[in-house]
Amino acid sequence: MKAMQVIFLTLLSVLAASAQVLKFGKCPKPAVQANFDASQYLGRWYEITKLPNFFQKGQCSVATYSLKSPGVIGVLNSELL
């Protein structure tokens, strides 16, 4: 029975590790979209679906975007348990 538990935990660890992607070097610098209007994205955004993870325990994740000052967007992430 212990051998099966060890095999199961090893397989589970390999599967969890394969979900991570490591990249070495400098961060990429994506191009900025021309004429981007951030005001169209201000307000509350609700998560439709998500992959399982250990840091989100709730069922309903919400991101609230607000204009803090010209050129500065504030983000408040929250969730309902």
Structural write-up:
The structure is a single chain. With 81 residues, the protein is of the alpha+beta class. It has a domain of 41 residues. Helix content is 21%, strand content 28%. The protein is built from 1 helix and 3 strands; from the N terminus they run H-E-E-E. The chain has a 3-stranded antiparallel beta sheet, with no helix packed on it. A hairpin with a 2-residue loop joins strand 2 and strand 3. The longest helix is centred in the N-terminal third of the chain and has 17 residues. It is elongated. The two termini are 36 Å apart. 0% of the residues are buried. InterPro entries: Calycin, Lipocalin_CS, Lipocln_cytosolic_FA-bd_dom. This is Apolipoprotein D. Keywords: Lipoprotein, Signal. It comes from Liparis tanakae (Tanaka's snailfish). One of its GO terms (cellular component) is cytoplasm.
One letter per element, helices H and strands E, the order comes to HEEE
Count of extended strands: 3
Cα(first) to Cα(last) distance is 36 Å
* Class from secondary-structure proportions: alpha+beta
Instruction: Going across the biggest sheet, name each strand in turn.
Output: 1-2-3
Strand fraction equals 25-35%
Tell me the Rg in angstroms.
20 Å
Organism: Liparis tanakae (Tanaka's snailfish)
InterPro entries: Calycin, Lipocalin_CS, Lipocln_cytosolic_FA-bd_dom
Keywords: Lipoprotein, Signal
Pfam families: Lipocalin_2
Using brief descriptors, characterize the structure shown.
81 residues, alpha+beta, 3-stranded antiparallel beta sheet, 21% helix, elongated
Q: What's a quick, concise take on this entry?
A:
The longest helix is centred in the first third of the chain and has 17 residues, at 2-18. Helix content is 21%, strand content 28%. The protein has a domain at 41-81.
